[in-house]
Design brief:
Shape: globular
Oligomer: single chain
CATH architecture: Orthogonal Bundle
CATH class: Mainly Alpha
Strand order of the largest sheet: 1-2
Largest sheet: 2 strands, antiparallel
Strand content: 5-15%
Order of helices and strands: EEHHH
Number of strands: 2
Distance between the termini: 33 Å
């Protein structure tokens, strides 16, 4: 999934957090809403400038960030 152009970081906008197309809608805001069970249709209604492709780009962006994450075991840890 190509999120280029849909997920943007604009210095000074929302403290430099990733946003959707430079709007005042953060990736985090949409992810948290989805995680809380807010349906996509409700998000699209609540944010008229939001598009279904933006939501898919948010999910792809989050998946890419998780894919980059590295976890290192700590000596003596049982977790």
């Amino acid at each position: 999934m190509e999120d280029r152009g849909r997920i943007t970081v604009v210095p000074g906008l929302l403290a430099g957090k990733p946003t959707i197309r430079g709007l005042r809608i953060s990736v985090e805001q949409i992810l948290r809403a989805l995680a809380a069970g807010v349906p996509e249709a409700e998000l699209l209604q609540e944010y008229p400038e939001l598009e279904a492709e933006d939501i898919r780009a948010v999910l792809a962006y989050a998946a890419d960030r998780v894919a980059e994450e590295k976890v290192f075991p700590i000596a003596g840890s049982t977790a």
